[in-house]
Amino acid sequence: MKHLVSVFVASATLLPQSALAWGFEGHQVVADIARAELTPDVRGKVDALLATDADPLTGHDMASEATWADVYRSHGHRETAQWHFVDTELDHPDLDAACFSHPAPDQPASAGPAQDCVVDKVQEFAAELSASGTAPAERLLALKYLLHFVGDLHQPLHASDNHDRGGNCVLLNLGGQRTQNLHAYWDTAVVEELGTDPAQVAIELRANVTPAQRQQWQQGSPSDWAQEAFQVARSTAYTIGAPPSCQQDAAPIPLPSGYAERAKAAAAVQLERAGVRLGVVLNRALAAVPVTVASYVP
Predict the structure, then answer these.
(1) Are strands 178-181 and 171-175 parallel, antiparallel or unpaired?
(2) In the structure, what pLDDT confidence band is assigned to residue 176 with cuts at 50, 70 and 90?
(3) Of 68, 97, 117, 161, which residue is the least packed, with the fewest Cβ within 10 Å?
(4) CA distance 188 to 182
């Protein structure tokens, strides 16, 4: 695991902050929550699929593979960059425009198009994962992308924009000489406040999910979930008084009173939602798909 973390950190230095929704830890938390939501049959199928993965970029357990899409992009695959977000503008919320008018793919989802959004990619890869005729190599990619993209979909600053590159242009003053842009703050700082052990954080967050919440969160579509995350961005993430612009030389903005606590609480719920919904997506997609380690080789 230490080697995997070093690989991820080295790769992350090559990427702008906007690339890393939830950071390494957040995606692990989502995957660990989702794993506990899987039926025993589907959990076995997920493990069987991941056991066939020969890509050395990450480990091949669910939590490690949940970081793969970011690491893969950092290794010369910028054509996948726009798949990680849906930048719906606060002052003109138009999900269709943010999704490039929902291009209809005429090829495997992993092949493009480059101009596509996370809402569409979740739907495309879920459809491939569940389809009996999907080629083995593509089915594995569909699973790996889903492990990551369902998490991305729930990061509020991957579902919104204030003409500031999803908060990347907004510099925060965290006290003393400490500064961090708004996007990076939501990627990492709020998650770190929940704990330093992703597996333990996942256990604690999942324990907070009530049966009523689980039932409610299992409903809806990726577009519904994106719009929900957009509302979290509007009600919480963007309540710092920053203008709708990308002024790189603007003075750092101090966090408003109580902002850190509200951000931590909102991020916790978004991670819980993402984990429950990733579990739902995988359970539905793989329930009827026959997968065994012996027979399933990409």
Answers:
(1) antiparallel
(2) confident
(3) 97
(4) 10
User: What is the pTM assigned to this prediction?
Assistant: 0.91
pLDDT band at 11 (very low <50, low <70, confident <90, very high): very low
Residue 112 CB neighbours (<10 A): 15
Nearest to 228 by CA among 241, 213, 240, 242: 213
Mean pLDDT of 5-17: 37
Closest CA to 202 of 66, 34, 85: 34
Residue 149 CA from chain centroid, whole number: 4
**Residue position matching structure tokens 């965290």:** 174
Q: What pLDDT is attached to residue 104? A: 87
List the one residue out of 172, 195, 193, 202 whose CA is nearest residue 184.
Answer: 172
What residue ranges define each of the domains in the chain, with the CATH number in brackets? Answer: 1-298 (1.10.575.10)
| CA pair distance 59, 228, nearest whole angstrom | 31
Q: Which helix (H) or strand (E) holds 214?
A: helix 211-217
**Edge-to-edge, what's the strand order for the sheet holding 171-175?**
178-181, 171-175, 253-254
The Cα–Cα gap between 228 and 233 comes to 9
For residue 254, the surrounding DSSP H or E stretch is strand 253-254
Supply the Cα-derived Rg of the chain in whole angstroms: 18
